[in-house]
Design a protein that fits this description.
Length: 331
């Protein structure tokens, strides 16, 4: 038995222990809950960090793939600029179904016609007539193929943004890219239809669609075709929204067309002036021939006149080419 004077102290100690036990029990529950929340927070944070690291690695991988694709496209474009198109390539760009033999036959025909015209004009002097015939054989078919090629490329450039819009609408509606290309090969205007048909034929032969599209700038040496090939190649390697990329490409192409129209309007005055200056010698010579034929006939009947006529024609050609270079703008 405890002494009477220690009983209150014992009761106070027991009460304190009971209260302390209750307080510790309550605090232990809160501490346990906090530690559990902390563990959950740490787990979530570590998971988010892992996801961020994986996304960062994926982004870095995609950036590297984009850089590789752009580098390859730049090297291909540099190689295309450094090499001139072959005769078969020029005939293909012009939309002609000629082969090399047909082109050479046309050159021979142009040379014979030029020789006959020159021999009839220069009073049976064979040497200048032979030079005119050789020039006609080399120049006339070359210019003919070049003019047809430029017209065909212009038609392609005008129609190509509409074809890109068709692909954008088709991809947004859920169609695969191959079906969109097939629609263009059936419904678009020439020469876009023929070029996309060639892409589908190469894909049918087993070539992947991105590699088939890579050959489009080789057949159509335009910046528009090169942009389209880059977009398709990047999307096939790195993924992403094809519809958004092609929609941006369509906007860029249309803005380029607007800029081309502005440049054409700004340079129209210079082109008119160059046309007037270039046609003045021919018109003056024709008027002199109609008014005083015996005065200008010396240029065609004498050797010195033929020499002066040839030198004048040469320098007139040089001046025309210089004016053409001055009024043509790259955009």
């Amino acid at each position: 038995m405890l002494p009477a004077e220690l009983v209150p102290i014992a009761i106070a100690l027991l009460s304190f222990c009971c209260v302390a036990g209750v307080v510790l029990a309550l605090l232990y529950a809160q501490i346990a809950r906090r530690s559990e929340s902390y563990r959950r927070f740490v787990a979530i944070a570590s998971t988010d960090a892992a996801v961020d690291r994986s996304m960062s690695a994926e982004d870095n991988k995609r950036k590297k793939a984009i850089e590789v694709t752009l580098r390859e496209q730049e090297e291909k474009q540099r190689a295309r600029k450094g090499s001139r198109p072959t005769l078969s390539g020029r005939l293909r760009q012009a939309g002609l179904e000629w082969n090399k033999g047909t082109y050479y036959i046309a050159s021979m025909g142009a040379g014979v016609v030029s020789f006959l015209i020159a021999i009839g004009t220069l009073s049976s002097n064979p040497l200048p007539a032979l030079g005119f015939g050789l020039t006609g054989a080399l120049l006339i078919p070359h210019l003919y193929v070049g003019i047809l090629g430029k017209r065909r490329l212009k038609r392609f450039s005008d129609e190509f943004p509409n074809a890109v819009d068709i692909i954008v609408r088709g991809v947004k509606s859920g169609l695969p890219l191959g079906d969109c290309l097939r629609i263009i090969s059936l419904e678009a205007q020439e020469p876009v239809r023929a070029e996309f048909k060639a892409i589908l034929e190469e894909q049918t032969m087993g070539l992947p669609i991105d590699q088939a599209v890579q050959k489009l700038p080789e057949r159509i040496p335009l910046a528009e075709a090169n942009f389209f090939a880059i977009v398709i190649s990047m999307q096939s390697r790195t993924g992403g929204s094809l519809s958004e990329a092609l929609s941006n490409l369509s906007k860029v192409l249309r803005e380029r067309r607007k800029m081309q129209g502005k440049i054409k309007a700004a340079s129209s005055e210079a082109k008119s002036s160059a046309a007037i200056i270039g046609s003045l010698p021919v018109l003056v010579g024709l008027l002199l021939y109609l008014t005083s034929p015996e005065y200008i006939a010396l240029l065609f009947t004498t050797y010195l006149g033929n020499l002066v006529l040839g030198i004048s024609a040469f320098w007139m050609l040089v001046g025309t080419l210089v004016m053409r270079k001055m009024i043509n703008f790259d955009f």
